[in-house]
Amino acid sequence: MMFNVQGASKNTCGVLAVLCGRTFEEKQKQDVADTRRYPFPEIVSSGRLEVQTLNNPSIQEFRKGVDSFQPNFVYLQGEQLPHDEVGSLVWAGANLSTAEAVAGLFGTVLPTTVYLELPNGEMLAEALHSKGIPYIIYWKNAFSCYAACHFRHALFSVVQSSSSHTWDAFQLAHASFRLYCVRNNLVLPANSKKSNDNLGPHLLGEPPKINVTPPELGAGDDEESSPDAAAVNIYDDDVSMKFLVCGVPCSLDDCLLGSLEDGLNALLSIEMRGSKLHNRVSALPPPLQAGTFSRGVVTMRCDFSTCSSAHISLLVSGSAQTCFDDQLLENHIKSEVIEKSQLVHALPNSEENRQPLSEPRRSASVACGASVFEVCMRVPAWASQVLRQLAPDVSYRCLVALGIASIQGLAVASFEKDDAERLLFFCTKQGKDPNLSNSYFSTPPSWLRPPAPSRKRSELCQATSQGTHSGLVVGNVKREDKGFTNGVRTPLVPVRRQLKVAAMRPIPHIRHQKMLPFSATIEVDGHDKGQVKASVSVAPSKPSLVGSNPVTHRKSNSNSFQAKQIISLNPLPLKKHGCDRSPIHVCSEEEFLKDVMQFLILRGHTRLIPQGGLAEFPDAILNAKRLDLFNLYREVVSRGGFHVGNGINWKGQVFSKMRNHTVTNRMTGVGNTLKRHYETYLLEYELAHDDVDGECCLLCHSSAAGDWVNCGICGEWAHFGCDRRQGLGAFKDYAKTDGLEYICPQCSISNFKKKLQKTSNGYS
After folding, report:
1. pLDDT tier, 312 (very low <50, low <70, confident <90, very high otherwise)
2. What is the superkingdom listed in this entry's lineage (predicted)?
3. Helices 670-681 & 629-637, crossing angle to 10 degrees?
């Protein structure tokens, strides 16, 4: 089936590979004689990679290919010289080694990235960059075809696996290059006597920036506009992870550990840069942290899917202005992870981190039975979840590019026999590691040597990959018999890499611990019987007394440590909505729901808007009826707003006023359900409007947390703990459905005076 060349789609990366036409007779003869033949991989379409190749084209053919295919990535390969050296750019006998000639190859259609695989390419790169191409990858000095092939294969492995930015893909491929080529002195050609210092590919271009600019704020929002108020903090612990890396056993020097650190950091940057925020809910602050929060700081549990569809959960805190804007919160988290932190750290050299006396036991499921060595790293807990989820993916090749064959006992499924041969080629080319003689590693005795693999994996891999490599032959150089042409009149046909049987080997079953969210994110409702206990100590549902010298029978049992942990965070109001609806006490339900829908759309919460519009809004069902948002909102704002928390009797007072309530209601946990729905649909709406009533206690004149009660006569609110009158019942007597009616001290005195006045005037 012919491929219609219409440029790369948004889900793929179009690569135009331009190869020189020099034959490889001398190279092929050398490979036949060499028993350690390097398996040069073909450049073919695979995963997100859509490859079109041109072999030794003319300048006109190249321009037509760029205009018709419109690739994202153009790869220009230098000619292959004797002694494993890569030469300059030569097409159809024309030498294009000058900056003017290379810049003249491109017309109005410019790719995002150009890779110049030729020596002394700095001047050429600057010429292309000045022409308007954002990113140029180039080499400053001479280099061997082995080093070039390793870097190119690592780079394309990243591109085919994930939707990565050029900057991050280069960082990962360069880390792999340092790990295998630089450490083993295989960068320069065989006949070169120069030093390896500072050699390798370079990237010309600016690093990508993440937009964390908050939306325009009003004149009264100075407090929220400060940089500190807009930033977010991520709360996560570091964990130790063990990696098995393909290669001969060696000492863990700074070059090896630094390369792995940079490579894994680039991999995690790719995953987070392309991540998406799917859901966020309010959460309790982390233990021992809540007391340090300033007013206006909220805590959120955020669910993300990364670039390669791994799922993670992050606990973050920040200002209300940031945390209630999905896009701004997502960008702040990405900026905090990618630009402000070093995620992966190698464990320091110490006695407990030393390499064991025997090399790790070989397994047919790990690196196809090839030799490996163990490296321990410290990574964030969320990063360990990402790596564990990516390892079993047979199409994910970024881990293989770094030589990682196993993560915490979990085999990397995409590792193939050819990958092991390529990586071991660099490790064994120079012979035994010179650092081993000075290390504590020694050959283990026979009784301590690992047993042979239990499955004859190598024969299977060799049979499936036999005949697929013949020297440095890439693209469609040897496919003339199938009708492929290098001109533009005939559409270029991509060659899709077929999945090898070797990559579909069984993976050993590992018993994993189920990923659970932060243990203290479950909200506690003191008036619901079916609640789930949080593992972190929280204040009991007894009244939190406010004011001095409370009466003994209503004293709280919580100590000061617990009180600090569940400190109420009263968020600052967001920028006002600016709607023209009526005040909430006279507003109609239809007017209110239309305004809520408009607000959610403006704030980017389109996922909450059903396709049927107002007739189906909201799509949440409670007690077999559509959720009554209108009465839910009116009852909550009349009781001081969502931040009052358990001071509102959600089940007894709020639910009983909603259409979802029935006399024979038997729902359990309805309080937590109402709070969750309110948080999803109405919390941000509440903060952007002036509908909240009863902000201050009429006794202590503060809006601090506590058990709130509403006076049945004047409608004002008070902390139950502030009322120190004798004879009052317990808080639960007033909070339950059809419970006692609370009358504040002022109304009690007024009623007593009225009754006394009526009696004195002769009325019964």
Report:
1. very high
2. Eukaryota
3. 90
- Identify any residues that bridge with 86 across adjacent strands, giving them in sequence order: 80
For 99-143, what is each residue's pLDDT tens digit?
A: 898 888 998 889 999 999 999 999 999 999 999 999 999 999 889
Least confident piece of the model among 5-14, 249-258, 641-650, 737-746: 5-14
Q: Is residue 156 predicted with pLDDT exceeding 70?
A: yes
CB neighbours (10 Å) of residue 190?
11
Asked whether the predicted pLDDT for residue 389 surpasses 90, the reply is: yes
Nearest to 208 by CA among 271, 166, 262, 156: 166
From CA 407, how far away is CA 388, in angstroms rounded? 7
By the 10 Å C-beta count (0-12 exposed, 13-18 middle, 19+ buried), 446 is classed as exposed
* Per-position DSSP letters for 639-708, written without gaps between them: TT-GGGGGGS-IIIIIGGGSTT--TT---SSHHHHHHHHHHHHTHHHHHTSS-----S-TTT----SS-E
Tell me the per-residue pLDDT of 33-85, one tens digit each, with 9 for 90 and over: 444 577 888 888 888 899 999 998 888 899 999 999 999 999 999 988 887 88
Provide the phi-psi class of 694: left if phi over 0, else alpha when psi is between -120 and 50, else beta.
left
The whole-angstrom separation of Cα 175 and Cα 198 is 13
Cβ proximity of 363 and 250 under 8 Å: no
Strand residue runs (E) in 92-250: 94-95, 113-117, 135-139, 201-204, 232-235, 238-246
Q: What is the pLDDT of residue 561?
A: 39
* Helix (H/G/I), strand (E/B), else coil: 15: strand
Q: State how far the alpha carbon of 201 is from the alpha carbons of 119, 143, 155, 176, 414, in Å.
A: 10, 10, 11, 12, 26
Distance (Å, whole) CA 402 – CA 451: 26
Cα atoms in the 13 Å half-sphere on the side-chain side of 195:
2
CA distance 208 to 205: 9
Q: Mean of the per-residue pLDDT values for the chain?
A: 75
Residue 383: closest CA among 474, 267, 555, 526: 267
DSSP 56: S
CA angle 151, 393, 373 (to 5 degrees): 60
Euclidean distance between CA atoms 105 and 75, whole angstroms: 13
Residue type, 358: S
Per residue in 360-376, pLDDT (tens digit) is 778 888 988 898 999 99
Q: Which pLDDT value is given to residue 176?
A: 93
226: tokens are: 């400060």
Residue 658 sits at φ, ψ, to 5 deg, of -100, 155
| DSSP state for residue 76 in the 8-state scheme | E
Long-range contacts of 753-762 (CB under 8 A, 24+ apart): none
State the residue for tokens 């321009």. Answer: 63
User: How far apart (Å, rounded) are the C-alpha atoms in residues 67 and 363?
Assistant: 49
Query: Does the pTM exceed 0.70?
Result: no
Interval 517-544 mean pLDDT = 37
Helix axes 145-161, 166-177, angle to 10 degrees: 140
